[in-house]
Design brief:
Elements lengths: L1 H8 L8 H13 L2 H8 L3 H15 L4 E4 L2 E4 L1 H28 L3 E7 H18 L4 E7 L1 H4 L7 E4 L7 H6 L1 E12 L6 E3 L2 E10 L4 H10 L2 E10 L2 H9 L4 E5 H9 L4 E2 L4 E11 L7 H16 L1
Parallel strand pairs: 3-4, 3-5, 8-9, 8-10
Antiparallel strand pairs: 1-2, 5-12, 6-10, 6-11, 6-12, 7-8
Helix pairs in contact: 2-3, 2-4, 2-5, 3-4, 6-11
Length: 303
Amino acid sequence: MSGIHNLEAYVTPRLPPLQTLRAFEAVVRLGSVSRAAEELGRTHGAVSKQLRALREDMGVSLFDRAGTGLQANAAGRQLAAAVAEALGALGARYGEIVRGVRSPEVRVACSASFAMGWLVPHMPAFVQAHPDVRIRLSMTSARAMREDDEADLVVLWDRSGYPPAAQGRAIRLADSCFGLVAAPAYPVERIGDRLKAQCRILHDHTAAAWDRWAAVTAIQVEAAASASFPHTHLCLGAAVAGLGVAIAERRLAAAEIKAGRLIAVTAFAALPEGFAAIPHASRPMSPEAGLFLQWLAEALEAD
């Protein structure tokens, strides 16, 4: 009997297929079979089939009808919470193992505009100095960066939207210098400490740059209209097209100014916070992340 008991201890518990559990968790979390199918890259029919298979396997209903949609019942919510916790733990452990067997990796989250406009063109210098360190870029919008909980480092200039604890971890890297830019032929009138333009170009998620720049320079901008875009490179593109006056960090506007597609309407002024990096909340900073931070600070200052 003891031998049988010991064998039973090593029998893996029977579980539904992992893809079925993933589909179920996604439907509960997103509240829609269609949205779950889109996230998972599957068809609506395939996800519905997996839900039916799970219901038949458990022998209980996991959803109640809610209008034309589905709503998880008590059993469904319990299972979804357990699956989400297990998938999260599995994903985290998988990532740790992968990082351990691969070359040292540093995941860096930053805006797409900063990555394309400055970081990537400067990366060869870091790769040459540290060929064994892999940098994995997560390029996204300023808003989505605030929700990225996987990055070892989040590089940014505006940390006002982050929780106080995250702001307290921020490591200052260099000055961020902002100024107004426009197409060479775009009409801008200056009257004392005021500028008048037809249109002001705003960034959806970092519109505070205008107010902070005005506070530093004491220059007010009057505009009859405004246009808003989700990325800095789109704001710069709109300015190049002659849509209006944009505010931009000097490093990100440098290529367009050098090419003559934009001109600096004002001088560039350093804003108080500057560029910074926020390390991960719970993981200690790796030596490789420290090397990247040191290089990034030196490169930003040297540029």
